[in-house]
Amino acid sequence: MAAQQTIQRTTAESWTLLDLLDQAPGLHALADALIEITEEGAPVVALTGDLKYSNGLVRYAERFPERFFNMGISEQNMVSVAAGMATTGLTPFVADFASFLPLLCCEQIRTDVAYSQLPVRLIGHHAGITLGFYGTSHHATEDLSITRAIANLTVVAPTDAAMLAASIRASVGWEQPIYYRIGRGREPDVYTPAELRDFEFGRAIWHHWGGDAVVIATGSMVAPAAEAVERLRGEGHEVGLLDMHTIKPIDRQAILMASAGGAPLITVEEHNTVGGLGAAVSEVLADKGSRSRLRRHGIPDVYSLIGPPTHLYRHYGLEGAGIEAVIREELERG
User: Fold this and answer.
1) Same domain, 262 and 138
2) Is position 75 annotated as part of the catalytic site?
3) Which residue has the higher pLDDT, 160 or 2?
């Protein structure tokens, strides 16, 4: 009887994992996009470290078992193996928690992958504070700072499932290695696939033009920023919104256009305010001597608290209401 209960419990837990995948369309988008480009002839291989359910690659493994490699809890070795695979003409996609992949494997990414400009695609999932209860070791709030400092490495933070799929398709033929920063696959839909047919790395997407202020958001923060901007525009405030999905190479022209009228700029990111999107935008403004004021909104230079992600977003003002409050402060300053 005890053995039967154990089997039933184990089976129920397995179904729970699959059920969680069904609630995370972004993870389906990852696997489905890889399946699509593989069927079209791209020399894809997928690697992960015991996380095929967490990142959705179980779907790819079922379709192409000979192209899927579970490397175990050995992330640094996994990146080096991917680099070796890339030298043979393969295009490896390496998926792991964003808290582990860029931080733990920084040397391997820099020396084995980026230095040789190998076409390895590094997918850091559950970025930012999406793994709230897991604590500091699993919060990824430094990964943009690390990856954008590595030469030859393209850094992308897709907004939603549709953009993740579009950016994976855009990677076919892209010669440089890429770091994808994605959430837990439950981000709200912002785009339809049709709206992203012309997606390009390094070309930001304008949602609204604004003369009173311009919000520049990336990744998971685009949806709540859009919510905040829509409310303010409904009150008559000319607040713009720019989706800066590519952190490197950053769209310098779009940033300079946003600052051309002298309106304040607000960057919004689920990342430490040091070294991420805000820092990248400030560098562009400083290089050109812009007179626009910049407000960097994200997680302050601290180790983020532990708790449910929804509570953490409210605490750091990274939901719609919190972002709206920050914009209002800048509008009041004039």
Assistant:
1) no
2) yes
3) 160
